[in-house]
Structures are given as structure tokens and as C-alpha cells.
Amino acid sequence: MRQIGRRGFVVAATGVVTSLVAAGDVAAVAASVPRRHAPRREMRGMWIATVVNRDWPSAPGLTADRQKAELIRHLDTAVARGLNAVVFQVRPTADALWPSPYEPWSQYLTGTQGKDPGWDPLGTAVREAHARGLELHAWFNPYRVANHTDPSRLIATHPARVHPDWVLPYGGKLYYNPGLPEVRTFVQDAMLDAVGRYDIDAVHWDDYFYPYPVAGQVFEDDAAFERYGAGFPDKAAWRRDNTDRLVRETAERIREIKKQVRFGISPFGVWRNAATDPLGSDTRAGVQTYDDLHADTRGWVKKGWIDYIVPQLYWNIGFPAADYAKLLSWWDGVVRGTGVQLYIGEALYKVGDPAQPAAWQDPAELSRHLTLAKEYAGARGHCFFSAKEVGADPIGAMTRVVTDHYGKRAPVR
Question: Which of 37-51, 309-323, 398-412 holds the top average pLDDT?
């Protein structure tokens, strides 16, 4: 994903373009948004990614005051854009953005894994988000341990070093082995610690379960399959069951801790292609979550294990291999009658990127996505990747979304 620098952004209101310093005067920004539509319940969210300091903090090692100011600026930007939820990444690589008894402080805060940053980012984010009328969805990555394959680079007390048998290298990264029952228990304990401690509105996962396939490499979980895979027709079925167990068990435990906390997952946008499975979508995607990530995303919806799903429909309308319009229709059919809320993941990061197709050079492309989604009763909102671009507003696409669709604030639920 191309890194886009932060700049002042503009909000179009009643034909006048008002220049504003990014999140400098939230009241002025909010007042400039036209009031066109009656409020309805819908998700208007953005992801705040902390892995490799993508969105926040802007660099490791900033002072606590600087980190807080940057975080609050993102929250103020969300308000200014008419959003009502932020999805804050608090466990990017088997670490923590709160004082966890299970895992070390994230290196993306101080530059040194395990070093106390001197404040509580998750606690502050919850408090400040709620003060602004925003929901705070805590975003966790279950199995990714590191963006390298050298365990010695982890802090000595890291669980991955204490239990080296839990960890597998693959594709230049380290992962916990999803096939080990003790790993599934541990990652649940580590994530759910935050549910017990904080008034978060939801537990949120992204698209990383078993890792994305890497050509010429093998995820070496044969030993775990030999030990635990009896009764399954093949390793793929066993792997899917492992992922199912993680989802089902986590859902049950969230309800036991705090019934009001929702559980949502944001998977890669294609479950299976129709050529693979007649229940699949009319797509020709190179990755299918069911087969490649061993994640039965459609099944989780049909079984009611999760409260919401945010498929990453990171393609333009008319894209030949994975048409946004066709996938939107397919996912609307999946959630119908289930009670699971459908929100759409939107690729704001692609807008204006010269490496992307022509559709992404049009500032109206994302607005057309939201217009199309209004035709589907199951589509109850959108989430934008990610916070940096929500503020930077590449080629004015986010301003267009706000002007066309976010005239009034709306509750998520």
C-alpha cells in the first residue's frame, strides 16, 4: 500500500469549498457538512493501523504526549468526516497496545519491544473515542508473531520464545501454529484480556488466519496434523476446523465476559469463486479464503457465530476478476436472514495511486460504491482503509463520500 503524506483537507458544503487544517477545528468541519439525509443506523468506520506504524503512531519512539496528540487527531478527523466508529489495531504482531499480562508492549510505540510507553493507548483511545460519540472496535491479529523469521529478535520473555514449538516461519514472517490447541487458548486469553479491562464496543479481526499462500513455500504443520488431524479427510479440512474453533470459541467467551461487546471479522472479499463452488461468487479471484486461508467466512455468517462481517471489497465496480458490484450482491445474499450485519470494507488507499486502474483515479469511484450499496438492504455501512487516507483525502475522494452520503451523523446500532 502506498504511503500518502498528511495534508490539509477540504470539505465541500453547499457549493463552497472550505479549506480546513486537518482536524484543527472539528466544530467548524462538522458544521460545514451538508444536512441532506435523515439519519439511519449504519457503520461509518475507518481502520487505524499500527503495524509498521502505517497510520499511528507516525514513527516509533515519539514522546507519549506526541503519540496522544496524533491519536486524538485521528479521532477528530473521524468526527469531521461524519464517521461513527474507529477500528483501532491493538495487537498487530503478538504484542499489545495496553499493559497486557500475556504479551509485551508493541515495538511500534517506542521502537523497542516490551518497553513501557508511559501511558495506555487502548484505554485512552476508548475514553477519547466515546467522548466524541465514536464506537471503538479493538482490532486484533490472532496468529501473526513478527514480520521477520528470527525469533532472537523478539524480547526474551516473549511467549514465542518461551514456547518455540508454537511458532512456524513462513513467507518471511513468524506465525503461531493454528493447529495447536494450546496456541488457540493462549491467543484467545491474550486478546480477551482487553475485553475484560476496557469498555470496547467490539472485538475485530482482519483477514489473517492461516497465512496467504507464498509460491514455493510450505507451512510446516505436518507434525500438528499427525497429532490432531485424525478423522479429517485431508489437511485442508483440519485447518478449516482449527480456524472454526478459534472463531466459535472466541465468540462464546466474549459473550461470557461482556454480552454487549460485538464480534466482527473483516475477511478477504472472496469466499470461493463460483467455478470452484456453485455457492461462490461470480469472480475469478486468485485467492479464496475457504481454500487458501482455511477460513470459512460464509459459514461463520450462516452459523451466526459473529455479529458483523466486513468483507474487504477492495476492487472497483466492473473489475473483471472481482467486480465490486457482483461481490456486494453476493455478500448481501449471504447475510440475508442471518441477523449478521454486513459492512463493506472500502479501499480508500487505492484512490489516486498511479499503480491502480483508471477507476481509482476518479474521485467519484468510492461514492458510487456507497450509492450502489443503498440498493441492498443487507449492506449496513462501510469501513475505510485507512485513517491516513481519511485525513489526507487523496484526489478529494473522501470529501466526495462525505458530501454525497454523510449529511447527518448516524448511529452504528
Answer: 309-323
Provide the pLDDT for residue 166.
98
- The closest of 105, 115, 264 to 200, measured between CA atoms, is 264
Nearest to 43 by CA among 137, 120, 117, 132: 137
All three cell numbers of 201: 464496543
pLDDT tens column, 218-240: 999 999 999 999 999 999 999 99
Q: How many CB atoms lie within 10 A of CB 75?
A: 24
Inter-helix orientation angle 365-373/397-405, to 10°: 30
* 8 A C-beta contact, residue 406 and residue 81: yes
Mind giving me the DSSP string for 110-139?
Answer: HSSTT---SS-HHHHHHHHHHHTT-EEEEE
DSSP SS3 for 336: coil
Cell triple for 341 = 450485519
The burial of 224, by beta-carbon neighbours within 10 Å (0-12 exposed, 13-18 middle, 19 or more buried), is given as buried
The enclosing H or E element of 170 equals: strand 167-170
The DSSP secondary-structure symbol of 151 reads G
Phi-psi region of 231 (alpha: psi -120 to 50; beta: other; left: phi over 0): left
Give the integer Cα–Cα distance in Å for 288 and 284: 9
Q: Which cell goes with 74? A: 485521528
For residues 170-202, one letter each, b for 16 or more C-beta atoms within 10 angstroms of the residue's C-beta and e for the rest, the string is beebbbbbbbbeebbebbbebbbbbbeebebbb
Cis peptide bond prior to 92, omega within 30° of 0:
no
How would DSSP label each residue in 42-75?
-EEEEEE--GGGSSSSSSTT--HHHHHHHHHHHH
How are the residues of the chain apportioned to helix, strand and coil, as percentages rounded to the nearest 5? 40, 15, 45
Taking residues 167-180, what's their average pLDDT?
98
- Strands 43-48 and 379-384 turn out to be parallel
Q: What is the pLDDT of residue 229?
A: 98
130-160 confidence digits (pLDDT tens) = 999 999 999 999 999 999 999 999 999 999 9
pLDDT of residue 254: 98
Indicate if the pLDDT at residue 196 is higher than 90: yes
Considering all CA atoms of the chain, what is the largest pairwise distance in Å, rounded to the nearest integer? 67
Residues of the chain above pLDDT 70, percent: 91
Residue with cell 483508471: 358
pLDDT band for position 39 (50/70/90)?
Answer: low
